Amino acid sequence: MMEKLAHIPAKPGVYLFRDDRGSILYVGKAKVLKNRVRSYFQKSTGFDERKAAMVRSVADLEFTVTGNELEALILEASLIKQYKPRYNILLRDDKSYPYLKLTINEHWPRLEVVRKVQNDKARYFGPYVPAGAMWETLAFIRNQYHIPNCRYSLDTRIRPCIQYQIKKCIGPCSGEIDRDTYLQMIREVEMLLEGKNRKLIASLEKKMEGLSEEMRYEEAAIVRDRIRAIQSISESQKMVSPELGDADFIGLARHGGTAAFRLLFVRNGVMIGSRDFVLKNTAGETDAYLLRNFIEQFYAKEIFSAPAIYCSSVPEDAGVLAEWLTGMRGSRVRIIKPSRGIRKKLVNMAVENAEEVMKSRNIAASPDAVAEIAAVLGMEKAPESIGAFDISNIAGTSAVGAFVWWEHGGFAKSRYRHVKMDAVRGPDDYAMMKEMVRRTVKSLGEDGEGHEAAEERQKEKADGIVRLKSALPDLVIIDGGREHLKVAIEVLREQNLTGVTAVGLAKDPDRLFREDHEEPIALDDSRPSSLLLRKIRDEVHRFAIRYHRKLRTRKAFDSALDSIYGLGKKRRFALLDRFGSIEAIKAASVQEIAALKGFNETLAREVVAALNKQKHGKEDRG
């Protein structure tokens, strides 16, 4: 080890620390390898405990010399992505983000969804985070302009397919529209994606007037309806400032060893999305270091960065980062800390939202919050775990129940449960709550076994840690008032679960109900206990609504596709899992559906035809 330290060159490069088993502990880059690596092993170095533990674990090191600092950064990003070393600050983000690709590089351009940006002279719009706005935009464009979503060659004349017959495609493949008219429509789509809605509306109004003067009233009416649709969608867009163009805004907030980032995506002056990220074990690191790591790891995921990235602090190696992003984008990228104007305001907004993320996490982890809950409810000790039940239904249809579990400052999603209320007929909330609690107790507590017996029987040792698999939480929250609480307690007594405290949490105004008290307890908005209880209540409500919507969507989807031979449950689930909703599937191209596992182009066409037939059937009946 000391011999390797003595022979490290004074050149830029990347270094790796390994433990005595050969596992990579840390990957770093340096402008001067010799100085950087040796600094870890100097006695005068004042590391925090985490870095000191890493240095004590280092048994071997490797280094790779690079031609310059930019090459070192690229190699570092690749190695961190590949090995995910224990002591690097890691961005836990396995998502890929969608873009809309307008293939203006093709003779007959199309609009499609992609998750990778290529240097192919096409136009890319995005990333869309979350993806819902993208699917809505795509559906709007396809409904208004009917441009083809197939992969047939449009240069060879063929008979139009079913998409043309159901008026979802204008049929350029069969010569139904000339190329000049088609390209004019593509230019309108491009303007819409660029956010130039006012300019587009002015152009369409002029076109409508011209058609009216020529007495082509049916065509003028189509343009008029298109103008109204664009005006409507313009009102719903979050316009920030047109002069901003494309920009990403990054805000950083910190508390203890945790850091939170809020990333805002602005495209063509419109806010198209945002994303939160939380990094742990960041104590001892500077804001500049954290921002550099965040930018490096986030944009290494084949994210097409904006030409300007505005940050709350100047990242470490900002110039090298900008050079790296410029190479990936193919045009200049700047990384800036703004000092005034709308850009400064948006960075401040990102910081404030990151602080809200931190505040929410800190409240959830605060010992004051659970101590207050114990005091308010007269519990002997503060609850280490809290569960919550909720019911979601519309007039008793597709009714579901949900249960979430909170412990040690966070939600334990592996212990979440949801239940379809098949056994309860009609809109009976109390019967549903009783059924939900009973079935969840059986799921968590070994088919109704008593709380204490379940604990004793389920104790096991794993890696020297005793884990309780089936214990119910110390405190159970029932979403509802006194009657909801009453039926839940009946179930707990039936199952001999005497060690669990249960309360009802009602809304408008927020108040707690206890079994042995006539008067409810009003929640004080400013108290950590109230904020934590609401957080748990909101989470179970979100979980219930999500499952309820999923069942309703699947029910409507299944009924629309019952007649398609070969489309079983697995393939239907694959469609919903990939696209998320029926509207998104309708907006998808045949090729996007055919690319799913178990599908082919013939089946994909039948799916598209069935869904569009259902839609047009409803319109005809209306």
- Distance from first to last alpha carbon: 79 Å
Mean pLDDT: 80
What is the number of E strands? 22
Largest pleated sheet: 8 strands, mixed
Radius of gyration computed on alpha carbons = 29 Å
Helix content: 40-55%
Bin the strand percentage.
15-25%
If helices are DSSP runs of H or I spanning 4 or more residues, what is the number of helices?
21
Shape: globular
Structural class by sheet pairing and helices: alpha+beta
| Unreliable stretches covering 5 or more consecutive residues | 446-470, 615-622
Characteristics:
622 residues; alpha+beta; eight-stranded mixed β-sheet; six-stranded mixed β-sheet; 21 helices; 22 strands; 45% helix; disordered C terminus
Describe this structure in words.
- Helices cover about 45% and strands about 20% of the residues.
- With about 625 residues, it is α+β, with helices and mostly antiparallel strands.
- Strands 13, 14, 15, 16, 19, 20, 21 and 22 form an eight-stranded mixed sheet that branches. Strands 7-10-9-8-11-12 form a six-stranded mixed sheet.
- A hairpin with a 2-residue loop joins strand 14 (about 395-405) and strand 15.
- The termini are far apart.
- The model is unreliable at about 445-470 and about 615-620 (pLDDT under 50).
